[in-house]
Amino acid sequence: MKAILLAGGKGTRLRPLTIHTPKPIVPIFSRPFLHYQIDLLKQVPEIDEVILSLNYQPRRIEEIFGDGSSLDIKIRYVVEPAPLGTAGAVKYAGDSLTDSVVVFNGDVLTQIDLAAVIRLHRERKARATIVLTPVENPTAYGLVETDAGGNVRRFVEKPSASEITTNHINAGIYVLEPDTFERIPSEVAWSIERSYFPSLIERRETFVAYIYNGYWIDIGTPEKYMQVHRDIMDGRYVTAPFLDLPAPRTSVAPDARIEAGATVKGPCFIDEGVLIKAGARIGPYSVLGRQTQVEEDATIDGGILWPNCRVGREAIVRNAILGRNCHLGRSVSVNGGAVLGDKTTLTDYTRA
């Protein structure tokens, strides 16, 4: 069985972080995001190959994952000649497949039981199975209506309050039969939500929903990207390095240097080669990427710093995200909601 990961997006909602780093490989702690999705796929032994559907900076992604041998699963790369939309990308990547295929959006983090989804698909002899998940504010999403038998009946794009009949949204995880791909035009941008799925409903084909009530998040905005780190540190999403880590859940690399007089409060993550100087304060939910240096009396409070950053004396980073190789001068203040791209330099006393 094959799996297709739709990882071709430009990650515009996460810019400027994704100008030099494609969204599928933005770091979650010290691991590129796609690692977490591949870990989930590997839980289904039947899946023996992952096809990465790429378009934006594909070489950056291939450099990290190679042929998949280090992950014990075969990885194949399919690069779209131009953006083809969600359905067009599936057809381009899976046109030669003959068996049921798992499709995953490239920005979804979840702990769903994929084997159970595949089992439902086969039991119902479905042409397509879609995973749905509940949300608190349905007006921000496209809703998916089902009948009492779990059959998909209608898609409602960003409804008004009066149009809300369900709180279930498309979770971006599907099991599809490749012989349905013939209805998708070749080399044309085509939407799986607006064109392919409605065609199944119109033809009265067996199209079923799997309702998933567990952990699910789209990491595609700075707010959600920060939330993922907090969820892992709090144990809402269970994975290393916070797996079975006792309170205060502080993950510190063995070679990190924390000088006497520095304060570190968990939960937090301090990667390899980090230096935290005397008087510096690292607050809860902070993430310090490898080789980052925090100078005397600086404060990191809920900030996420990618590798090789330097935070000057008495500077403050509070609930903000810094890309790679950022340099903050003395007494700089970067506060909630700020996102700095790679190699940003802020001179002494700057406020951001």
Q: Could you characterize the architecture of this molecule?
A:
The chain is an alpha/beta fold and 352 residues long. It is 17% helix and 28% strand. It has 6 helices and 30 strands. The chain has helices spanning 33-41, 58-65, 85-94, 114-123, 192-202, 222-234, and strands at residues 2-6, 27-28, 31-32, 49-54, 74-79, 101-105, 108-110, 128-134, 143-146, 152-156, 168-176, 207-211, 216-218, 250-252, 257-258, 263-264, 268-270, 275-276, 281-282, 287-288, 293-294, 299-301, 304-305, 310-311, 316-318, 321-322, 327-328, 333-334, 339-340, 345-346. The strands form 7 sheets. A 7-stranded mixed beta sheet has the order 5-4-1-6-11-8-12, with helices on both faces. Strands 14-17-20-23-26-29 form a 6-stranded parallel beta sheet. The protein has a 6-stranded parallel beta sheet with strand order 15-18-21-24-27-30, with no helix packed on it. Helix 2 (58-65) links the parallel strand 4 and strand 5. Helix 3 (85-94) crosses helix 5 (192-202). It is elongated, with a radius of gyration of 22 Å.
